[in-house]
Amino acid sequence: MNPAIKSASEGKLQLYYLDAVHFVWGTGFLTGLWCFVRMFVRTSSGRKRYNILGAYNAITRTLLTVANESYINSASVCEMLRLLRRSHVGEAITIILDNAAYQRCLLVQSLAAELDITLLYLPSYSPNLNLIERLWKFTKKQCLNNCYYETFDTFKAGIDACLHNIDKKFQSQIASLMTLRFQTFKNDQVVAG
Predict the structure, then answer these.
(1) CA-CA to 131 of 20 to 30 Å: which in 90, 93, 96, 141?
(2) pTM of the predicted model, to two decimals?
(3) What are the pLDDT digits (tens) for 97-111?
(4) How many C-beta atoms surround the C-beta of residue 73 within 10 A?
């Protein structure tokens, strides 16, 4: 991963971190509540999902997304690969992603090779190395925690507005959050109890 980060910093390639997030409308997102009097907090009925496959450029701080209301699968990843290639014609592209089966399948790997996109898979169980995970956590905090959306359409619009303005409205927070510093566990001792 470090050679790709170095090359991206030197302007030799476009480096993206890719991952999916599944926002569920109908689930209350309470972050903390303490009171003397019982309170009732409104929540939506139903459990509709708004799925977003995102690719975050670590250097330019741009976000590309593919969204749907069904599932993120290999077809969604292929759609993202085509979007990335159209966005960076003639440029080298490297994507860092996790080991989800729909991202490792032959269909995705074949299309990536055809489009001349390098896929770097992270080790299993290492979300701390995928930069976009921080963005998803920040997005949930900004537009879902303690928020009520009357309809599924307003729920999706709230998420889209947050993601669309992420680099403008939250510029200072994103600048400090989306750094290329990662927590690793190379020399840490593991204590089993």
Answers:
(1) 90
(2) 0.82
(3) 999 999 999 999 999
(4) 19
Full residue range of the structural domain in which residue 55 is found: 2-177
How open is the CA angle 139-125-116, to the nearest 5 degrees? 80
Residue 7 within a domain: yes
Question: pLDDT by residue (tens digit) across 79-96?
Answer: 999 999 999 999 999 999
Instruction: Supply the DSSP symbol for 128.
Output: G
Burial of 153 (0-12, 13-18, 19+ CB in 10 A): exposed
Buried b / exposed e over 122-132, threshold 16 CB at 10 Å, is beeeeeeebbb
**Number of domains making up the chain:** 1
When computed from its CA atoms, the radius of gyration of the chain, rounded to whole angstroms, is: 19
Residue 81's identity, in one-letter code, is L
